[in-house]
Amino acid sequence: QVQLVESGGGLVQAGGSLRLSCAASGRTFSGYLMAWFRQAPGKERAFVAAISGSGGSTDYADSVKGRFTISRDNAKNTVYLQMNSLKPEDTAVYYCATKIPPAAAFNTWGQGTQVTVSS
Question: Model confidence over 54-81: pLDDT tens digits?
Answer without folding.
Answer: 999 999 999 999 999 999 999 999 999 9
